[in-house]
Design goal:
Elements lengths: L4 H8 L11 E4 L5 H12 L3 E6 L3 H13 L4 E5 L5 H15 L4 E4 L14 H29 L10 E6 L12 H21 L4 E8 L8 H4 L2 H8 L10 H12 L10 E4 L14
Parallel strand pairs: 1-2, 1-4, 2-3, 4-5, 5-6, 6-7
Helix pairs in contact: 2-3, 2-9, 4-5, 5-6
This protein binds beta-D-glucopyranose (BGC).
Length: 282
């Protein structure tokens, strides 16, 4: 059946509650924490979602089920983001199932903490491989598809959007975590250099730098009242963040509402980067 033009006009009209309608998103590391919250929020905003995970498939399926409840399509795909072959297979599957990709949330990341003189090469390599090389590999595949497809104005004013999950530790040095801080410092200039190179192609690349967010990665820092009290000394707003704080920012960065924003890191940290020690000291 050939549908009349008015049908398409109504169907494609911007919906303020579903700003990502008709878009396809991949969120890496989406079976827990910040990745899960981003996947749910992008899904609720109307995007179909690939939920990437590397272990615990049952958690990925749980997230898929929640996204489907919001009326969007969702698919769990296993891939280790540091492995080129697995990343390419994941993208091939996404393009086969969903046809294209409009939004990549480069979220997968981990910590392998150690005092500097005790840090093993394996701890160093693991963190750089997942947190930095993984973002490169996923972004490269996404950009290849953005360039192939170009802008589809009914879907988005951009050919594609990439959101890199960074950290306040892209600027705050972090003893005991030099591998992690180095990986996030690397993400900062990966993001900015990509943004500079790809802006003429209408591809937007930005980062979110979360502060302390309650997720499994930093459980020890907020689990006990004593630990949380210590942590709160670093957060002027006086609360530890929750994954939804980051997810809301991701929806905005993925939508055309941020059309003129590229090459920027948005710090979502309750003021952690404001040198809270100087509020009374110095
Ligand atoms: C780290 C967390 C830490 C937070 C603030 C994050 O990037 O993954 O472990 O609590 O930065 O220091």
């Amino acid at each position: 059946m050939i549908l009349p033009a008015w049908f398409h006009a109504v169907n494609n009209a911007p919906d303020p509650l579903k700003p990502l309608k008709n878009q396809k998103a991949l969120v890496t590391g989406a079976n827990s924490g910040i990745g899960e919250a981003c996947a749910l929020a992008l899904g609720a905003a109307g995007a179909d979602i690939v939920v990437n995970y590397v272990s615990r498939p049952e958690e990925a399926e749980r997230v898929v089920g929640l996204i489907k409840q919001s009326g969007s399509r969702a698919l769990a795909v296993r891939a280790d983001v540091s492995r080129e072959d697995e990343v390419q297979a994941m993208f091939a599957q996404m393009l086969k199932e969903f046809g294209t990709i409009d939004i990549l949330v480069n979220n997968a990341g981990l910590q392998r903490d150690a005092r500097f003189h005790e840090m093993t090469l394996e701890q160093w390599n693991t963190v750089i491989a997942i947190n930095l090389t993984g973002q490169f590999l996923c972004a490269r595949e996404a950009v290849r598809e953005f360039l192939r497809r170009g802008v589809v104005p009914e879907v988005s004013s951009a050919a594609g959007k990439i959101i890199c999950m960074s950290s306040v530790h892209e600027v705050i040095p972090w003893g005991g975590h030099v591998n992690y801080a180095a990986s996030k410092g690397g993400v900062m200039l990966l993001m900015k250099s990509m943004a500079q190179e790809l802006a003429p192609k209408k591809i937007r690349v930005n980062s979110i730098a979360p502060g302390a967010i309650k997720t499994p990665i930093n459980r020890a820092a907020w689990e006990t009242p004593e630990a949380e009290a210590e942590l709160l000394k670093l957060i002027p707003e006086g609360r530890v963040g929750v994954p939804e704080d980051i997810a809301r920012t991701a929806v905005w960065l993925a939508s055309d509402a941020s059309d003129y924003v590229t090459g920027t890191t948005l710090f979502v940290d309750g003021g952690m980067t404001l040198y809270p020690g100087f509020a009374t000291g110095g």
